[in-house]
Amino acid sequence: MSGSPAASATRRARRALERAAAAVAAQHARDDGSVHLDLDDEPDLVVRTTVTTHLNAGAALLRAQRRFAESRDLTSLAEELVSEVHRCGHQRVLLLETVARSRHRELEVLAARGDILLVQGRRITGSDLTRMSPSAVVELVPGHPSAPRLAVWGVADTTTPTLEVLAAAGGASWRALVATADAQRADRESTSAQLLLSGALRLAGLGSWSWDPVTGVLRLDDRLREMLGRSASDPDPDLETWRAGVHPDDRGPFTGVEDPAAHAGTSAPYPFRVRSTDGTERTFLGMSVPLATTSSSVVQGLVLDVSAGEKSTGELVRLAQCDSLTGLANRSVMDIRLAEALEKATAVDAVALVLLDLDRFKLVNDTLGHQIGDALLRQVAVRLEDAAPPGATLARLGGDEFVVMVPGITRPEAASIMARDLLRRLRSPMLLPGLPEPFVCTSSAGIAVGHQGTADDLFRSADMALYRAKDGGRDRVAVYDSAMREQAQARRDAEHRVRRALRTDGLRVVWQPIVDLRDNRKLVAAEALVRLEDPVEGLLEPKHFVDTAEDTGLIVDVDTWVLGEALRQLREWRRADVDLQVSFNVSGKTLEHPAFAHRLAHSVESTGAAGTSLLCEVTERTLIDLSSTTRASLGELRSMGARVGLDDFGTGYSSLSYLDRFPLSFLKIDMSFVRPLGTSDRAEAVVRALISLAHAHGMVVTAEGVETELQATMLQDMGCDRGQGYLFGRPVDASLLPVGILGA
Ligand code: C2E
Ligand code: MG
Ligand code: MG
User: Fold this and answer.
1) Is the Cα dihedral 548, 551, 552, 558 positive or negative?
2) Nearest CA among 582, 523, 593 for reference residue 558
3) Counting beta carbons within 10 angstroms of the beta carbon of residue 300, is it exposed (0 to 12), middle (13 to 18) or buried (19 or more)?
4) d(Cα 654, Cα 83) in Å, to the nearest integer?
5) Strands 297-305 and 266-275
6) DSSP-assigned letter for residue 327
7) Could you say which DSSP state residue 351 is in?
8) Is residue 583 lining ligand 1, measured as CB closer than 6 Å?
9) Which residue lies with its CA nearest to atom 21 of ligand 1?
10) Please, where are the H alpha helices in 356-411?
11) Pairing of strands 614-618, 581-585
């Protein structure tokens, strides 16, 4: 058999593909977009032209797929996958099961647009395809023959014969592209994930069952068989027999499982009694969920035998449904209660969902310790229970996030009044064990009122409102309105923009001169300011993306990139004998990142830059929220010789009390103080006072936003050390900075 012509062609095809995959991997390392693979020693191979023609596309797709698998930004990556495919000349992608399974929703959107052909409803593998006739493969593709070209992506199992079938089926107008190595790895990973999962279930003492409506098969795993006293050789019961074995009073959760699409699942555990083969009655705690994949839809259940446990079933149920720290309900119970309330709700009898989040709770944990943090959360729960109206359900979702669900709401204003009352009660000082002083903590709340849609919809709306409350300065209530959805979309767009820029080298740095006001306005430093080159909108200023980057944590990558660029520039200046300090902005979030300072020290060392040439600008917010990680990051900056200073002074708290917390080397007076100079005596007095205050603390003072000669002269007269503003120069490309005058 191994000697048959078909088998040897298959072996050669496989070898060729392995080499192709290796070449793709090597090319990926080189990243230059080119692969040349000579397959001419395989003259009778049907796949030959396909592989050679499309290997480049394959490499790009492999990269896209890898990112696709790793990233959480699914929509943009799915888009990217499609645009790669278009760029490579394929107009459509046929996605088979390996890729599609976990990314179903995003892919469905793309499929609806006609960008992707999703083969749904059944699991198709490479070996399935092998068994099919070429015409059956072609029929698989909806829209055929209007789909002129086709890329096959992520075929599992036996790829080579599949490719042969497709190539034969498509003739010249079809293209097949195969990511053999990736597909096989995905299969291996999936097998090892399954092993891990079954190991974990065994450790947890959990049995599991699954019901597949297509095959009509109910499967019990070994552990559940053991619990029921069934031997490994006993056949699995059918659904009716299984249900008949459950105590008649406990069959509720098992109704409707025949139809996974309609079965909502029971994400909170339910107790049920079941008769085992020896006739004894066991008590189980169960959960079930419908699981939809691209290829099938099943109901999956987990079961814990609690008959023999010391704890009563009631106690176990309580533990499973409660948040152990506060005793409030947990998220799964809230989901169920909310879904029930929404079912009964009407337009005049709606449900209000209030999401509550403590302001700066992380700081409490960081500075006062977790024990005090826990005590605070417990007190908050007690206060909420006291203050919540009758009929409300309370839950802690995790961390410092609480939720109050109130049915029977006629007007959103009523919910707003109630939420304000909750915040007021939470705001009053509380005594916490271990703290000598009463503690005051504020909270923010987002409210959504509704009577239609799902529990998830209402949660999402309340979440947007909570974001608004936080963004508006915290310690407040915001009620969801439809404009928030648009704003949330705008934020997602901005996030997408930043991610894309980070991926595609779309960030730029412009430099703004900082001059010495005491020495002839000589150029002494330059501030690195980030810009984003958007393919559609052009060069964007930070106000279009920095806030979103902060919210999403992407700012860490942005700051790191800018700093890398700044160090590179510093080295170039050094080489050209230009002695200039480099000022850079760093967000509190970035300093919070434990690896940031370490990476910076490494970059400084590897670029050979002098740490003493670095000026690090932080905001007041950073110093107010100073955590131990931030302090360590700033400490590391100082120890490498960098100076740390305060940006935009005067826009926030404008107190220098945080100098006790961290020594600062310079202070930048915000342009809102500089602008009225010359037109307001008060402004002049304030700036004068600021300068002498900063000098008294040994800080160098820079005035920002200097636009007129009058402002500059007045600042010079007041003894201000440095100036920055359009008068001295706008932010420009490094090549346009007037560094030449330094050499003079
Ligand atoms: P900033 O650090 O206070 O930077 C000064 C801002 O004022 C810059 O705006 C600059 O273009 C503008 N400016 C300077 N002189 C004048 C003037 O005479 N008149 C007026 N009207 N404006 C002037 P830009 O570049 O839009 O940056 C805005 C803010 O974005 C920065 O304020 C900084 O807080 C933030 N930012 C910029 N780059 C980065 C970065 O790499 N990382 C982080 N985390 N934030 C950055
Ligand atoms: Mg700045
Ligand atoms: Mg500033």
Assistant:
1) positive
2) 593
3) middle
4) 49
5) unpaired
6) -
7) E
8) no
9) 705
10) 361-368, 370-387
11) parallel
